[in-house]
Write a structure and sequence with these properties.
The structure is a single chain. By secondary structure, the protein is of the alpha+beta class. 35% of the residues lie in helices and 39% in strands. It has a four-stranded antiparallel beta sheet with strand order 1-2-3-4, covered by helices on one side. It is globular, with a radius of gyration of 12 Å.
């Protein structure tokens, strides 16, 4: 498990920790943001552009637009570098 620092302000609160757990046997990564009570599974096969759109659509339901966009970019970067 890896913990990344997002450091993104959402509704006057700082989102700090993003947890990444890579499951090499099942070819996916579990991403969790406890401060938002949000998590998702990301398949290894997902394209980066599509992944960013998917993450942004999900995060936009629980976070401000700018925070969701920035967090989507960071998560996509972290997942694709693993």
């Amino acid at each position: 498990m890896k913990i990344r620092k997002a450091n993104i302000i959402n509704q006057k609160e700082m989102i700090t920790d993003v947890y990444l757990h890579e499951n090499k046997q099942q070819f996916h990564t579990l991403v969790a943001v406890p401060q938002l009570e949000w998590s998702t599974l990301i398949s290894y096969e997902e394209e980066k552009a599509e992944l960013i759109q998917k993450l942004n659509a999900s995060l936009a339901n629980i976070a401000e637009k700018e925070a969701a966009e920035e967090l989507s970019q960071k998560i996509a970067h972290w997942v694709t570098e693993m």
